[in-house]
Amino acid sequence: MRIGELAGRTGVSVRALRYYEQQGLLAADRSPSGQRHYPHSAVDRVRLIQQLYAAGLSSKAIVQLLPCVVDGRATPELIGRLAAERDRIDRRITELAGTRDRLDSVLTAAAENLRTGRPCPARARREAA
To answer: 87 and 68 in one domain?
Structure first.
């Protein structure tokens, strides 16, 4: 399939697909006129790349991890890298959950202030100044 079709099937821009190719994340055959042609398996590969990017991995990390994830060719180093990325994601999840909890507290207090007619503390300080 050509690059435009791959972009349409995956929702990824043509520019991003070219970047993936430059980074070694995706490979295409070239026609005699220079057009890129991708195998049908490229759709799944692009979706996997997008998932790994969404998890916060860099293109450099993805290039190193793809053989393990896609082909099952794992080395102790790759397994260690995958475990480290998982741990990093777990730490980020914990941080985000803490941020969400703080936001929930602010929302609860703001809703209570609206219910009782009291201004929020920051607004009350500004009005008093």
So the answer is: no
